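Ticket 4471: requesting a sanity check on a complex prediction with biotin. Repro inputs:
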Amino acid sequence: MNIGNVQIMIEVEEVPSKSRSLQPSILRKGLGQSFFATNLVFHEIADSTNSLARELGANGAPEGTVVMAEVQTAGRGRMERRWLSPGYVNLLFSLLLRPPMKAEQVFGLTMLLALASIDGVKEVSGLASRIKWPNDLYVGRKKLGGILTELSVRGNDVEYVVLGLGLNVNWNPADEESLPYSVTSILAETGKMVSRERLLVRMLKRFESYYRQLLTGEIDEFYERWNERSILLGKRVEFETVDGTICGKASRVDRSGALIILDDDGQEQKLVCGDVSVLEVQDE
Ligand code: BTN
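Returned structure tokens:
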């Protein structure tokens, strides 16, 4: 913009009006000194960013490597499910970490990514989301995102961890009829598109600061916050076992990430993995 002979640069807050590819240069600038700026790997098309990050991890890539893709041809979720997402509208990425920890502590990292994502979404769009154990982000009864955590261990020591996040951002899920569960997106909830770069930068910066805190051994605060943001705790839930359906009240998540449920016979049931259905949902 020119006023007389003075040139004024106006920094316009970037809010996209239509889909375009993620811009690694914007990410790099936004990330500044963050360790996530050191090895940003961007693919237009990949099979799965988690698979690529695992390969990089096995080949010695540095901690803080971020693998992103616009399109995944074999995106994976928990329990061998597929992760479906149209290209150029959502966030699909994986983080490579090399934390000095034991395998049973890795749930703490999934927890941090869930919290960092919730914070980033709130800061950038105003949307409040919650956590559904063990790794989902929800708005009301609809899934906003999911985390897939994978690790490589030597003995019981972690060699590397890959944290993959699929987050529905500028997608209109009403366009997709063949989805197996109710999904939503930031756009569907707020009616507004957001800059995916800005959102990713916010989430990564948050995650990095939480991660540094976690490595000093300060973890209680994160468990508290995770529990506060959980849609399950204190709620009546049901889950399937080989012996049938068990109903009870979700009481807490233990340090290994297992969900402790007080069943209707007053017995504590420890759920290490799987899915639970919430019989009542608390909306924000
Ligand atoms: C789930 O809900 O079960 C977890 C879904 C995780 C999907 C993300 S998308 C980016 C990364 N790459 C993958 O193949 N999966 C994760």
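Notes from triage: The chain has two domains: 14-228, 236-278. Leaving this open until the requester confirms.
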